[in-house]
Amino acid sequence: MTGTVILVLVVVLAVAVGLVLRARSGTVKPTAGAQTVARRPAPAGRPDDQADRDVDTAEEESGDQTGVQALLRAAGLRGDGPAVVHFSATWCGPCAAVRRVVAGTSARLAAEAPEGAPVQDLELDLDEHAVLARRLRVMSLPTTFIYDAEGVGHGRISGVPDASALAEALRPLR
């Protein structure tokens, strides 16, 4: 009897966690200002590459975003309007769906308001842009970011974006 109760509780908990994760996937999570991570000096006895993996949230909160902006510009961010930056990899199945959603949303926004700034669609390979991915804390694929013309982050999406939520996040930036 006790084994059955434990099994039922585990199944209920697993379903609840699955539903929460499913509900969160694809939604735009607003960012607090800039998507910035800075390099900390290596503490004594720690390898320098480990220090590069550390995240400095104090600089993120202060709005200092020059390092990430430089990496984004080097990756191809133009800065002439809003941009959707999504990380992908050749082995990532859902990344193809992200391509379709971003392309369709960009085309729909351009048709709705041709006078607005075009949305830049910048797809970055995780392996080729590992430093930028690490600085932006990309932990899973696909991960999508929304930037304005100044390179300030306005949203982060884990999973395949919901097209209507992506459009709503981009409209005020055009």
Automatic annotation (TrEMBL):
Domain Thioredoxin, by residue range, is: 36-174
One short Pfam name that applies is Thioredoxin
Q: Could you give a single Gene Ontology term from the biological process aspect?
A: cell redox homeostasis
Q: Per the record, where are the segments of Basic and acidic residues compositional bias? A: 46-56
Segments carrying the region annotation (Disordered) are: 30-66
Alphabetical list of PANTHER family matching this protein: THIOREDOXIN, MITOCHONDRIAL
Instruction: Please identify the protein, giving its name as recorded.
Output: Thioredoxin family protein
The organism is: Tomitella fengzijianii
> Source organism lineage?
Bacteria, Bacillati, Actinomycetota, Actinomycetes, Mycobacteriales
